[in-house]
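Worked Example 4.2. Consider the chain below.
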Amino acid sequence: ALHEGHIVSTQELAVLLQPVFTQNSKNLVLLVQDTLSVDDFTYYSEPYGNKKPFQNLSINLLQEILQSSPSSLVLPAVDCRAIRYLLGFLQESADWKLTNITNLDVSQLEVNTSKPNLFVVRLQPFISNLNDVSTLEAIAENDKIIGRLIMGLQEQEIHFSVIYTAVRPSRISRRTDVAWKLRRQLMATEEEDSSSYPPLNVTNGNYTCILFYASNFSLQANDSLFIDLTNITFVNQNVDISSSECSDTNTTLSLKYTNPVSEINSLEIRFLMTNMFYEVSARNWSTLESVEIVQDDEKLAKFNVSVISAPAEYSFHCQLVGTSNLYPAKLIPSNDEAKNWDVFISRFQIQGFNIENDQFSYASDCTSFFTPGIWMGLVTSVVLLWILAYGIHMIMQLTTNSRFDDPKGPALSVPQTE
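Applying the procedure from the previous section yields the following structure tokens:
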């Protein structure tokens, strides 16, 4: 009974999920995408060639929701801040046996149906600058993965419920706080930033020397153990940053966690940054040299970093940072232990030098200034300008006749030599 355009809050989502905990079958599959919005189900509903998005997801169920909704134009959606707490909320709501599915081979999956099971599946990420066709292909590929997973669980006669969600929205829609506001507007306002927590700051005396922010900060160990550090880092701030170090040339952000998951007693993540002067650019540059993960004070995983640098007066920002080859800024394993870890960071922003007023400075983004779209526009403009210049040149070369025939006088005779 939610009106169109309603944004489901954290408290409302907890009430809506109660039937999942009270039904006979308490097996739950949580499908997590990096970006997704309600509009994607209609925008990418049509097949493109042999790519059929959302084929294995119950499109009939979606059509029923459209019919039962007060408006088929704007469906209710869930606030992304509620999604941020979803995994932690599910773990606290029941005595789940948490299983992170990575290889999607459910034939070897041993399920104990005597107690609730929570299966967490991290789907392949989308890249924000993909065109519609590439995004549709990525959705179709993830849909095949979902189909294989659901088919495998059904073959084992396991009864389960499915939640398909994402870390953040893929589209920004206009405000729809109440039903009567759903009318055409000349200047529709966009939603405010969904982040509800400030960045993590490290102080050195009376001033802030490090700022760190991420909308999603999670790790995966040995392709099975998933660790979400977002809430305990930025919201609850249940993290020890006392080992962080600051200076004019070297800065280390140290994040220490105690029992982040039951299988790990202690976990430390270090971001090592340098501030150096480069004669070519005649200025100082701040560079994230490496990232280190220390498990239980003995296992060290070290990653080299690509393209994470900015002028020393700026902060650095990147939409996706991690070990995936699809991310613009990649963490490259430099030892054998690092190959056992996967890192996922969304909306990454960090600054280790020249912080003023406890706020991030102007951000240098990992996306280059000359994107493919800009190059296409420049090349097209050059071609059009060349055609215009050639046309003007041809018009300027036009000349009039030097002699004219007078119909009242004798005929004009032009010698052949001329």
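Residues 278 and 300 are 31 Å apart (CA to CA). The chain has two domains: 10-169, 200-365. Compare this with Example 4.1 before moving on.
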